[in-house]
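Note to self: keep these together.
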Amino acid sequence: MQRFNHWIDLFEKLVITLGLGAGTLLLFTNVVLRYLFDSGITWVLEGVQYLFAWVVLIGAAHGVKAGIHLGIDVLVDKLPPRWSRVVVLLSTALSIGFVAIVLVLSVQYTMKVYAWGDLSLDLRIPQWIPYLAIPTGLSLMLYHFLGVGWRLWRGEIDRIHVSEADQALKERGA
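Structure:
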C-alpha cells in the first residue's frame, strides 16, 4: 500500500509540476512570438487550458492528501471533543459522498464525449482526453478523502485540514 501511495504521490507531483511548467513556458513563448514577431502558435491557448485543467484537478486531489484545503473550524473548536469528532467525521462523509456522485457523473459524461468522437478545435486531439482530467482528479480526490476519513476514524488525526496556527506552533517547537 505504501508503494502504491508513493506512485500516486509521484504522479500527482509530476502532473502539477510539468503541467504548470509547460503551460507557463508555452504562454511565455506565445507572448514573445506575438509581440516580437507578430505571429504565434495557434493551439497554445487551448493546450494551456487543457494542461491547467489537469493541474487544477490533480492539484485539488493532492491538496486533500496534504490537508491544505480551506477549513473553517470555528464551530468545531467550540464543541466538546466528542461532538467535534462527530462533526468532522460527518463533514468528511459528506465530502466523500459528494465527490463520489460527481465522479460517477463525470465518468458518464466523459464516456459520452468519447462516443461522440469529437476532436478539439486547435490541437485536433480526441476531446475525451482533456475531459479525462475530471474523473482522474476526482478518483484521486476520493481515494485521498477515504484515506483521510480512515485516519480520522482511527483517531490518527482530528481535522481534514492542517491548521496554520497549529503548523506554526509545531515549527516553533511549542
